[in-house]
Amino acid sequence: MKQIADFKLVEKQDFGRSVMLRLHAQQPLPEILPGQFVQVRVDGSPTTYLRRPISIHDVDFKQNEITFLVQQVGEGTRHLAVAKIGDTINMVLPLGNGFSLSEKGERCLLVGGGIGIAPLFYFAKVLNERGVRPTLLLGGKTESDLLRLADYQKLGETFVTTEDGSLGEKGFVTQHSVWQKQQFDKIYVCGPKPMMKAVAKLAAEKNVWCEVSLENLMACGLGACLCCVEDTVDGNVCVCKEGPVFNTRRLKW
Amino acid sequence: MTIDLGRGLVLRNPVMTASGTFGYGEEYTDFVDLAQLGGIIVKGTTLHPREGNPYPRMAETASGMLNCVGLQNKGVQYFIDTIYPRIKDFDTNVLLNLSGSCLEDYVKGAEMVDALDKIPAIELNVSCPNVKQGGMAFGVTTTGIAQVVSEVRKVCHKHLMVKLSPNVTNIAEIALAAEAAGADSVSLINTLMGMAIDAEKRKPKLSVITGGLSGACVKPVALRMVWQVAKAVKIPVVGLGGISNATDAVEFMIAGASAIEIGTANFIDPAVSAKVAWGINEYCERHGFATAADLTGALL
């Protein structure tokens, strides 16, 4: 069941352009699946009138805590980045549909680009709990984009690309040598749209099942306003309600 | 608290949710007990299915937002077959917002909706700014609105509420034309035509360049128009436009509205509609109004 809840900021870690926020709720969290998102009320100023959809980086059900990894890209995320410990942040959660969970024995690859790596952390954690050890392929423009790399490495074999070659293989995630060396049953992608399209194309060429997580501009987050639509084989559908995770076969990419 | 808008449309309280901001009600049942609302007005529906406009359809503005959804919906028949059975037993008034691109579509659509027992009223949308031959063509002239309202009136035995466009020179004149053509009530305002540009890219932010502005920023314009229309017509006026809390709602009623609709605020606080209903009650108690209906036109 979806709920509106106040969270208190209990920990903040600065990564330059990005920030990690750990938030605590008084009441128990609802069930939250990897790939689902929350709508955050930033501060109600005229320039951040609407809620902001934010992906879920990690969840601790025992502590009633949820963690975001947020990059400052606009007014909303800039406001979030300057939140202080003890500040109250109101959220609507959980929203949308998560990633399809792999079964034991399936070889799955999680591909993240830029801040798109954020939801893959919680996803990889849940996969591990299910006995699935995923492979991770994380890409950034430069070394400093690859946040919490050591923590990701604990969750599965992790490969890295950077566009400037400062860490891992130089180039885009689609150019990494792992594509030649390993076979996968399922590929999950979160990152900028051009990167997700490139991975989806590669997956299609290899005839491998692939899911992507979209982040179209949203207003309601509940499937009411019909603003965040993506063109699919079933026509325009709301990313907030029918996504944000889509099987690429459903998309007109 | 009950509000009688005429021809069988009686609301438990003055609060309804505006078309296009509350889905079919189902999207909000985790947050709002629908029995606490006067009514819900479901998404704008046209006779034939519409895919709507391409993405991007939304741009945030200072204290508001622009949208150019373009009436995406699966058509009246789909509504009747698939959605109506799911929502007809909601413990509140379920109104259907009906739009069209030509007179025949409005009339045919109204005829089909008229046959649905559990829909007590049609909100006739003659004011959508986001469709090329959209209803707005009808809603911006007195002759256009008279024509569509009188034709729909012939087949509609339910309460007929006509939703007015603010994109006109004299909204009171339009409201009077709707009243003369047989409207049971008017609701206003629909969105204000607007535009947003991305300066860095030198491109419009919306796929079809212009869109409808809604949210807190339109409230003073809406309030002024409700006041003007309420002075001009004898039928009930339903006020909407930027209502975000109970105080806003009370202001619209004092200006002359008999009931109100909450729109964009549902996106920011999905529970706001029930809070507004409660807040109007609280205001009435505090100011000695026996019933919310007494607030209508109580401007000193």
Overview of this protein structure:
The complex is a heterodimer of chains A (253) and B (300). By secondary structure, chain A is α/β, with parallel strands linked by helices. Chain A has 2 domains: 93 residues, Translation factors (Elongation Factor Tu (Ef-tu), domain 3, Beta Barrel), CATH 2.40.30.10; 106 residues, 3-Layer(aba) Sandwich (Rossmann fold), CATH 3.40.50. Chain A contains 6 helices and 16 strands. The radius of gyration of chain A is 17 Å and the shape is globular. Chain B has a single domain, classed as TIM Barrel, CATH 3.20.20.70. Helices cover 32% and strands 22% of the residues of chain B. In chain B, the strands form 4 sheets. Chain B has an 8-stranded parallel β-barrel, surrounded by 6 helices. A 4-stranded antiparallel sheet of chain B has the order 5-6-14-11, with no helix packed on it. In chain B, a hairpin with a 4-residue loop joins β12 and β13. In chain B, α4 runs parallel beside α5, α5 crosses α6 and α7 crosses α9. Chain B is globular, with a radius of gyration of 18 Å. The mean pLDDT of chain B is 96. Classes of the chains: A alpha/beta (253), B alpha/beta (300).
